[in-house]
Amino acid sequence: MPTRRIEIDGRQWQVYPSGFLTQYTGDEFGLIFVAGKGEEREVRVTRYSPVGVRAREQSLAEFDDAQLLELFRSTQPSARSPEAGYRS
Q: How far lies 48's CA from each of 25, 28, 72, 77, in Å?
């Protein structure tokens, strides 16, 4: 699975496509942002609609850092996301 790295507010984040599929398969993808390890680990999740490319991995590769930062600003904590194991 492809990974991107980005520094946000002095902290290193790894970015992965989530692999979680919603009813909007192909029109909406999830991204998982992970920083830190162990007890300090923070996981945040967001979804986006790709423009043009309809493959998760390729659309992630095409983002520049400014676009990833914009997506990061719309993330939610992993505890509230099915991509990271939340169940209602």
A: 11, 5, 11, 16
State the residue range of the domain holding 24.
Answer: 4-81
CA distance 86 to 81: 5
Instruction: Kindly give, in sequence order, each residue whose CB lies less than 8 Å from that of residue 82, ignoring residues fewer than 6 positions away.
Output: 20
**Does residue 86 belong to any structural domain of this protein?**
no
Residue 47 lies in a domain: yes
pLDDT tens, residue by residue, 6-25:
999 999 999 988 876 666 55
45 belongs to a structural domain: yes
Using an 8 Å Cβ cutoff, are 26 and 54 in contact?
A: yes
Side-chain-facing half-sphere of 16: CA atoms under 13 Å: 12
29 phi and psi angles, rounded to 5 deg: -120, 155
pTM of the model: 0.80
As for how many domains the chain has, the answer is 1
